[in-house]
């Protein structure tokens, strides 16, 4: 399993609009691509002074699925123009990790 992590920041004023864009347009658009091996996407949010930080965590079955999502330069961030308009800054590159273990903390 490959995990792709990316972060972007908005102003306090743009945070709700950005989250709405992700939930209503961007995430459904990714799902509609039907990429084999694309598992799930998670959205994290935290207030950080005068900005709001968002992180997305995407789960892929293998590197080929990541390439189908991101293109040949897999680390380059995929940030549509509508998202760029609401972000004050963002990571230009995404981080990728191989998941080595997943374990429940409940017995």
- Summed up, the helix count is 3
How far apart are the termini?
24 Å
Radius of gyration: 14 Å
Q: Specify the helix fraction band.
A: 25-40%
Q: Indicate the CATH topology.
A: Alpha-Beta Plaits
Classify the secondary structure makeup into a structural class.
Answer: alpha+beta
Shape call: globular
Q: What string, H for helix and E for strand, traces the elements in order?
A: EHEEHHEE
State the CATH class: Alpha Beta
What is the second-level CATH architecture?
Answer: 2-Layer Sandwich
Q: For the report, how would you describe the main beta sheet?
A: 5 strands, antiparallel
Care to describe what's here?
This protein is of the alpha+beta class. It has a single domain, classed as Alpha-Beta Plaits, CATH 3.30.70.100. It is built from 3 helices and 5 strands. The chain has helices spanning 15-32, 63-70, 81-86; strands at residues 2-11, 38-48, 51-60, 87-90, 95-98. Strands 1, 2, 3, 4 and 5 form a 5-stranded antiparallel beta sheet that branches. Strand 2 and strand 3 (51-60) form a beta hairpin. The longest helix has 18 residues, at 15-32. The radius of gyration is 14 Å and the shape is globular. It starts with a strand and ends in a 9-residue tail after the last strand. The mean pLDDT is 97.
């Amino acid at each position: 399993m490959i995990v792709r992590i990316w972060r972007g920041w908005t102003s306090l004023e743009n945070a709700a609009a950005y989250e709405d864009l992700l939930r209503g347009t961007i995430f459904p658009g990714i799902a509609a691509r039907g990429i084999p091996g694309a598992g799930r996407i998670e959205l994290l949010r935290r207030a950080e002074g005068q900005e709001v930080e968002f992180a997305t965590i995407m789960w892929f079955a293998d590197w080929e699925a990541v390439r189908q999502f991101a293109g040949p330069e897999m680390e380059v961030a995929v940030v549509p123009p509508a998202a760029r308009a609401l972000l004050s800054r963002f990571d230009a590159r995404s981080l990728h990790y191989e998941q080595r273990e997943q374990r429940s903390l409940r017995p």
